[in-house]
Amino acid sequence: MNKLFSVEVIVSNKPRARDPEGETIIRDLIHMSGYESVKEVRTGKLLTIMVEAQNEQDAREKIVAMCNDLRIYNPIAHSLNVRVRPEN
Amino acid sequence: MKVAVIQFPGSNCDRDTVHVLKNSLKLDTQLIWHNEFDEKEYDAVILPGGFSFGDHLRAGIIAGHSPATKGVRKMAAQGKPVLGICNGFQILIEAGLLPGALLRNTTLKFVCKWTDLRVEADNTAFTCAIGKGSRIRMPIAHNEGRFYADDDLLDRLDADGRVVMKYVDENPTGTSRGIVAIANEDGNVVGMMPHPERASDAALGGVDGLGVFRSMLEWARC
Asked: Which of B24, B65, B122, B219 has the fewest CB atoms within 10 Å, i.e. is most exposed?
């Protein structure tokens, strides 16, 4: 029987690809305001997806397959981080 | 009256604003780079439109925390006229000088067009020379200009006469109750999405924007 799972998909630039938005945030907002202990900021895009699946593993596999199929990230430049919220 | 127009990296309506103040209204106006702004030298300040700091993280938030904004905050507290136009409105909200939020337009499009507006409050430094109930035309040009607040805050702004301008006839961005401009409690700080500097020369299609800047001059007498 299928249940509804909440899956977070985070798309961000790979470490080698510069992230000018993150660089601006750390330089002009965070360091400018005195938070010198912060050493790096990387930005990305978060998608919270509700999906019907049999279990957590099934939910993850479905979403990863969809992200690959629809190119929700560009594998050349982006890394994909998929987190399934545990069942209550 | 000496007016500062603050230029952030990414501002792009700064020179238009200076042109109107200096050449049309003959005001002592200075275009000032954000790091060099000294609020003590000025009687009024305008935060112009554009995309300060690339709109990174959220439109207006980085400029809203910049050293220049500390000076703007002091001027606001002293009762001096402070106007934020478009990105300047976003900056005033992110700096906490005005309440609410400016979200992405419901159309999910950058909307650039002339709009019909009604002045809802004339007890502000930027509408006192126009008159409540006046119908005026000004262009908008933005992607994140959908003023949003919960019903409690909207009711409070209405009750306190802090809603300064609304769209009439249409609501092209889906903004709450058609609101496009609001003021602080004292009326000296105003944020507006429409561009008065683009409506200040008949050759460009309208002059209703001049009333916004003229109000600043008359504010001391209002």
From this structure: B24
